[in-house]
Here is the input.
Amino acid sequence: MPASPDVPAEAWSGVHRGPLREGEWVRLIDQKGRKHNFELVAGKRFFSNKGHLDHDEMIGRDEGFTVTSSAGGQYLVFRPLLSEFVVSMPRGAAVVYPKDAAQIVALADIYPGARVVEAGAGSGALTCSLLRAVGPWGTVTSFELREEFAEVAKRNVDQFFNAPAGSSHPSWDLRLGDLKEGLPEIEGQVDRVILDMLDPWNCIEVVADKLVPGGIVCAYVATTTQLSRVVETLRAHGGFTEPHPWESLVRDWHVEGLAVRPDHKMIGHTAFLVTARRMAPGERPPRKTRRPAPGAYGPDYTGPRPADLPSPEPVDTEPGQ
Here is the structure.
C-alpha cells in the first residue's frame, strides 16, 4: 500500500502522517494503561521500571506498533491525540478538559475563518482546540493576566503545532492583559468570545459592544454562584438571547464478555458552560411567557434582575411587627 502524504504544513493541524521522525512527540502506553509522553531524540533512551527503550527503535516506523523494553515490558506507540496531549502537558493554570473543549467548539459553533477571542489563555489547552477549529484563515486572540501562565500557554501551543523556533501559529495573537481593557482595541468586530475567568459577568458590556449580531459568548465557570451571576447578568443586559447553561459528565464502561457495567470512576463535574447569542443593535429577545418560580427573585435575591421584573418590597423583620 502506498504511503499517505503528510498533512500540509500550511494547514497548521498539529498532526503528521507517515513514519515517526526526530523532534516529534510520542505517547507510550504500557500493559497497565500507564501513559508516557516524550520527544523523540536520536541516540536518547526512555527509562521506566521495565528497563529502557532506545528512541532510534521508534524513529522511522509508522505509529501503531508495539515495542519491548530491555526488561520485557511492552508498550504501544502512537502520536498523542490533542485530547491526550492537553491532559498531560505542563500546566500553569488548570486546563480545560477535552470534554468541555469539545462542547465549546461544537456548541459555540467555532468554524474555519472565525474571529475568536478567549480570556484567559491558562495553559493553552482550549487555545489548541480553538486554533485547530478556526484554521489558518481565522484568528484566535487570547488575553492572559499572568505572565507566567502566558509563557506556559505559549510553550504548550507551540509544541503541539510543531511551530518553528521563534514563531507561533499564524492565527494566534497572545496578549498579556485584561480583556475589559484589551477587547475594545481589537480592530473590527469578532464572531465568538470565550470567557474562562473568575468574573465573566464584569465583561458582558464590553463583549456586547464587540460581538457581531448573531455572535456567541460562551462562559466557562466552576461554581453555581458564578453560574447564577453570569446567566442573570446576560438576562439583565437585554441584548442577548436567553442564556443556555449546562454541564457534561463522561462515564466510561467496562466491557468483558458478559461483564458489561459502568466503570467505577468517571469524569464528573469540571465546570459549567453558558452560551448566549448577540441580538442586533437596538433589538431585544421576545419576553419569556413562562414566569419565574415563586420566590426566585424574592427579597433574599440580590443579584442582577431581568428588566421586566420589579424589585420586591423589603420584608419588615423588626420584632413585634
The first strand starts at residue 25 and ends at 29. The mean pLDDT is 92. The first helix runs from residue 82 to 88. The chain has two domains: 24-80, 84-277.
